[in-house]
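ok so I'm stuck.
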Amino acid sequence: MSNDNPSSKKRDLVFTRVFDAPVELVWKAWTDPQHVMQWWGPTGFTSPLANMDVREGGTSLVCMRAPKEFGGQDMYNTWTYTKVVLMREIEYLLHFADKDGNRVDPVTMGLPPGMPQEVRNLVDLQSRRRQDGIDRHGI
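replied:
not stuck anymore, here's the structure
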């Protein structure tokens, strides 16, 4: 039996960002709790919690808080690391979770049916040399 339902097909999304910053700072943005809490979530959302255990086999717990006009609720994710290469690469599986880090079905959080139970993420830091000789780092 074939499953031709387009919503059941896996898709890759590739985002590229270039930062005019040293690789050490970009690495901290992904691994240091104080840095993660400054950017995790869309514009207008805050991140009041980031318990980071960035190592292969480790799991981080990150909270994203919606603004009051969107309900003000806290939404938690765990990031379970499958590969960590210092200053170069972070691969993790994102799972929706409760405040204690227990996995939850995304539908119970109000997300649409068919939302994946886990989402693979790969952060690949690549240095690029600008024409003026200064390194830029992309993810």
